[in-house]
Amino acid sequence: xxxxxxxPLADAELDIxxxxxxxxxxxxVLLLSLVxxxxxxxxxxxxxxxxxxxxxxxxxxxxxxxxIHANRLRLxxxxxxxxxxxxxxxxxxxxxAALSLYLQDLKLTFxxxxxxxxxxxxxxxxxxxxxxxxxxxxxxxxxxxVVAAQLVDAELFPQISLGQxxxxxxxx
Length: 172
Known about the structure:
By secondary structure, the chain is an alpha/beta fold. It is built from five helices and eight strands, in the order H-E-H-E-E-E-H-E-H-E-E-E-H. The protein has helices at 17-33, 51-59, 96-112, 130-141, 167-170; strands at residues 44-45, 65-68, 72-76, 82-87, 119-124, 142-147, 150-155, 159-164.
């Protein structure tokens, strides 16, 4: 029997220089293309504070208001006069879809009567959660519409003022 001798295995060296060069270039490029956070700014207007501004506002056309209660939404026009009440949906949430449809019809009615209305006041209680407030602001600001086979945001009432819901009405 003939014995074969195995050749001693030499330690192979790995050349990873080109791989390291690739990583040095690739990692910063990927980090630069990564979006860490998206910040969205919502422009709002505060209610007037001075007497002159209050008198000026009283001389202007009527104010459109949206009251957010725990169990309903109430749209007022002019301020304080109920225009429409939106009760909870079957799922137990506030009916922002019906509000959006009604605001679209109201905006069209204003345009037909040559009333240029761009502002709305949202009255909310102190205990209202943030997501509900942002949803209400998004609903009254614009709606999705199809124009020339593209989905766009059509404007409703982009000038939003925030106010506190009066406590006497907040208990209803």
